[in-house]
């Protein structure tokens, strides 16, 4: 345990793993978009999107639980309290977050969606300030978060930003999704103090995925057109979820929330760059470079202080 703590509190290791997680989550944007095309899911078909997400997270959870069992972890010997905690985490971190996310995205522009989704960092840092005595807000953290947010805005700069309209079921739902995500991350950090990270992440993804699938099906959603290509894409999404969520929870277990959460600003950066690559667009746009520099500067500012758990 002490060896793990020494490894996963090393700033360079934290930066590499957190960046890798954000790269995986960023790659999900073009992958999901391609998935909708392969499975013939229309942009307005939210129930089918929930079913699709449910399949993804169920498989991701099963992958982690099988790996945990293979590594000798106890995945069935769980107390009633732990089972309830894991179920709550699954509903919060997976089910609720993605319900609000998918509905919100369908009722706003892509530019606003990316910006609203990035508010998860602010919620994480603010919640950590009130929950943990060693993770308080200071001017350095505030400036770092502001720089990261400006970076995301500069990457998404367009005339859409001049539209100041606000729809509760659009931008509002995306902010709720971001808040729920922050709550889930902190709740997961609490659970990993007494339970294995792989087991916690596996069950939360599995339970949350089951709920998403059932809610989607009960609302009339369905996912067909399984081919070799579409199945491989779904498997990739499941693998990236299992890897990213488990590694992220591992970082949160051993580190303060603020210095880890600031890396979330990299997700839309990677998402934009990878989407451009798949669409054969120019990734070396001026605004992308400016955004990356600002986000990296923000990450550096938040992590400049000595990291303690």
User: What is the overall pLDDT average?
Assistant: 86
Helix coverage percent:
over 70%
Shape: globular
Strand content: under 5%
| Biggest beta sheet attributes | none
Question: Rg, please?
Answer: 19 Å
How many strands appear in the DSSP assignment? 0
Descriptive report:
By secondary structure, the protein is mainly alpha-helical. It contains 13 helices and no strands. The protein has helices spanning 2-8, 11-38, 46-70, 80-106, 110-117, 120-131, 139-155, 168-191, 197-218, 228-254, 257-261, 266-278, 286-303. Helix 2 packs antiparallel against helix 10, helix 4 (80-106) packs antiparallel against helix 8 and helix 9 (197-218) packs across helix 10. The mean pLDDT is 86.
In short:
The model has no long low-confidence stretch (mean pLDDT 86). The chain has helices spanning 2-8, 11-38, 46-70, 80-106, 110-117, 120-131, 139-155, 168-191, 197-218, 228-254, 257-261, 266-278, 286-303.
Protein traits:
EmrE-like; cell membrane; 309 residues; mainly alpha; transmembrane; transmembrane helix; Multidrug DMT transporter
Would you spell out the secondary-structure blueprint of this structure?
Layout lengths: L1 H7 L2 H28 L7 H25 L9 H27 L3 H8 L2 H12 L7 H17 L12 H24 L5 H22 L9 H27 L2 H5 L4 H13 L7 H18 L6
């Amino acid at each position: 345990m002490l060896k793990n703590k020494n490894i996963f509190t090393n700033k360079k290791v934290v930066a590499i793993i957190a960046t890798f997680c954000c790269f995986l989550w960023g790659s999900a944007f073009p992958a999901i978009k391609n998935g909708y095309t392969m499975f013939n899911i229309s942009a307005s078909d939210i129930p089918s999107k929930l079913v699709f997400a449910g399949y993804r997270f169920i498989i991701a959870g099963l992958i982690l639980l099988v790996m945990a069992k293979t590594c000798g972890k106890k995945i069935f010997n769980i107390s009633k309290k732990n089972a309830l905690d894991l179920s709550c985490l699954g509903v919060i971190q997976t089910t609720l977050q993605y319900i609000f996310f998918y509905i919100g995205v369908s009722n706003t522009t892509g530019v606003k969606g990316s910006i609203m989704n990035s508010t998860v960092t602010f919620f994480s840092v603010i919640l950590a300030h009130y929950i943990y005595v060693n993770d308080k807000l200071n001017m350095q953290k505030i400036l770092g978060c502001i720089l990261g947010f400006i970076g995301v805005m500069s990457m998404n700069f367009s005339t859409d930003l001049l539209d100041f309209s606000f729809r509760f079921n659009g931008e509002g739902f995306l902010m709720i999704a971001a808040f729920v995500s922050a709550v889930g991350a902190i709740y997961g950090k609490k659970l990993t103090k007494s339970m294995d990270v792989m087991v916690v992440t596996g069950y939360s993804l599995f339970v949350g995925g089951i709920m998403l699938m059932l809610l989607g099906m009960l609302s009339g959603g369905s996912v067909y057109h399984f081919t070799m290509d579409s199945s491989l894409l779904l498997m990739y999404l499941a693998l990236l979820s299992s890897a990213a969520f488990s590694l992220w929870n591992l970082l949160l277990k051993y580190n303060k929330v603020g210095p880890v959460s600031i890396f979330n600003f990299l997700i839309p950066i990677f998402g934009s760059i990878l989407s451009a690559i798949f669409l054969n667009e120019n990734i070396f746009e001026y605004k992308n470079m400016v955004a990356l520099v600002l986000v990296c500067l923000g990450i550096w500012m938040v992590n400049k202080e000595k990291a303690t758990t």
